[in-house]
Amino acid sequence: MTKIIVDAMGGDNAPSATVAGCVEALKDDKNLYLILTGRQNEIEAELKKYTYDKTRLEIVDCPDVIDMNDIPTEAIKRKQSSLIAAYWMLKKEDDICALVTAGSTGATIVGGQLILGRIRGVKRPALCPAIPNSRGSFTLLCDCGANAECKPVMLCQFALLASAYAEVGFGIKNPKVGLLSNGTEEHKGDPLHQQTYKYLTEMQGINFTGNIEGRDIMTSQCDVAVADGFSGNVALKSMEGCGKLVLGVMKKEFSATLSSKIGYLFMRKAIKRMRFQLDFNRYGGALLLGLKKVVVKSHGSSKPQTIAASIANAAAIHRNGLVPAVEKKLESVDFNSLIQEEE
Amino acid sequence: MTKIIVDAMGGDNAPSATVAGCVEALKDDKNLYLILTGRQNEIEAELKKYTYDKTRLEIVDCPDVIDMNDIPTEAIKRKQSSLIAAYWMLKKEDDICALVTAGSTGATIVGGQLILGRIRGVKRPALCPAIPNSRGSFTLLCDCGANAECKPVMLCQFALLASAYAEVGFGIKNPKVGLLSNGTEEHKGDPLHQQTYKYLTEMQGINFTGNIEGRDIMTSQCDVAVADGFSGNVALKSMEGCGKLVLGVMKKEFSATLSSKIGYLFMRKAIKRMRFQLDFNRYGGALLLGLKKVVVKSHGSSKPQTIAASIANAAAIHRNGLVPAVEKKLESVDFNSLIQEEE
């Protein structure tokens, strides 16, 4: 049985979307056991709407909820909150293998670092979503916002963490790694990225293929796009914004005239396939890589199917051994001899 | 007569696309006079395909062409090249008011700084494209790649330069300025962006509305998105990549089945309207702001209509007085007293 803890109060649509997502996940995976943290009465009221296997779900009552406006370093002291209680249980109980939350990104990152803890040798955890690409597959963008300020050694580790995720989560052998910069040439970028380029070229344990540009995240052969958390976040949000705009314009135009409405009737299936292929949330949320257990940060606006996908992804990559894979990769690189200039 | 000089050899499809674009521009605007720099025989061979007003077009023979692989600081010494010859004429001849090129971005920037020269007080020129947004209008993204390394004073000036462009080029009064960061909260970003936020709040001459995220470039109320050239470039390319992927998937899915093919027949006009609304090149290329005259850098893969749009935009913003508008805005801010910490 794979035991996963879910912050039932995290996200804009909690607890209704989280509870519905949990029920869906339990239905899809008979070897799943879920612990929901949050306000017991609210969760129970939602659960009443569904039939589900009650022997595989338990609730831990937490009266407090962290919201998006709370300061993360303060928020993680609130042990009665659904997210922080979940982190403490994840840390203490060996048989709980993963955490899923759609709550505050900041508190999730700080809680991961300070409560759960990093894998030995990891400088900083990194957020890593799976972005749909033109090959019909996914590009892992790492980091996409956990670290606004980065050093070369951190970027080198992001390459390693995301490579392990690509292998374990997507079965990609020797995943191709690109460094997100403002041009493909070697000399491009600021000193941070120029230096990182040099280290990545020398580093063992990854398959570095050079610089990539923003457009390459969705349209190149790369499996992993390494980014500092600032520009990685800008890239992710820019792609999301563009996708949202295009789908919005499409919706408007496709219902603008009688002719286009008729056309839409013939095209519904094609549009559905298209939406599926371009779904940023098909694998649920972003992984918070580098921690001692699997943590998935689902989008704040997660719908039930997003939560269910996040839980399914968390279960799969735990079963496939993400954490041991990261540990093994870390052992293969001597960061102190690779990077002498720093710290 | 508005006299514009065009680097006829710049871009992947030169000189055929540039020449065709020039012919189109001359047709659309009877007060336009074009000077084409480049290999005379090649340009003349292309021109033979069209009928156009020969009294409003001249060729300056330049045997040399700068390509994308040339090092910009070296390339600008090549006075026989189509781009550098154009820059020298633009500098020396008062009646030439603008330059349009689809050639090397690096050489265009370096040439602008070292040959044409900056407006007094401008620290660095910045690239500023117009990105289609959800309001059916455009957001000006500045800088999107001229400066991989930035200081707060540069970002403050980019806000000013792009505000002048929004007023002069798009008739927007008191344009709303957002700072591209990794979150909307004031404390977000690295020290560069945190410091810039503070200065922009205090600065005269602009209408600063706070931090924006990547998704807001295409979907918010902002007229101007200020960015360091590194993350601005990442944002631009990420949006382009996403747009390209979505349109690619759409094309594939819409011809996948008989039903979707029938639907497409009914939807052609809707799809055409959609493509128009989402066209990154409707205003041609990016402006290189902060220089003594108007310079437009068109996309390397520019088609004839992109070149024509770049020329039309260059003519319009020259006529509307972009450079005097920038000068006036610069006079309204005392950067030395605003920013004491630097240099």
Radius of gyration of chain A: 20 Å
Taking pLDDT < 50 over at least 5 consecutive residues as the criterion, the unreliable ranges of chain A are none
> Please, what is the average pLDDT of chain A?
93
Report the largest inter-chain contact: A-B, 63 and 63 residues
Topology at a glance:
The structure is a homodimer of 343-residue chains.
Chain A: E1 2-7, H1 16-28, E2 32-38, H2 40-47, E3 57-61, H3 72-75, H4 82-92, E4 96-101, H5 105-116, E5 126-128, E6 130-132, E7 138-142, H6 152-170, E8 176-180, H7 191-202, E9 207-212, H8 216-219, E10 224-226, H9 229-254, H10 258-277, E11 286-289, E12 294-297, H11 304-319, H12 322-331, H13 335-338
Parallel strand pairs in A: 1-2, 1-4, 2-3, 4-12, 7-10, 8-9, 8-10
Antiparallel strand pairs in A: 5-11, 6-7, 11-12
Helix pairs in contact in A: 1-11, 4-5, 6-7, 6-12
What does this structure look like?
The structure is a homodimer of 343-residue chains. The first copy, chain A, is α/β, with parallel strands linked by helices. Chain A is 46% helix and 17% strand. In chain A, the strands form two sheets. In chain A, strands 3-2-1-4-12-11-5 form a seven-stranded mixed β-sheet, with helices on both faces. Chain A has a five-stranded mixed β-sheet with strand order 6-7-10-8-9, sandwiched between helices. The longest helix of chain A is centred in the last third of the chain and has 26 residues, at 229-254. In chain A, 58% of the residues are buried. The mean pLDDT of chain A is 93. The interface between A and B is large, with 63 and 63 residues.
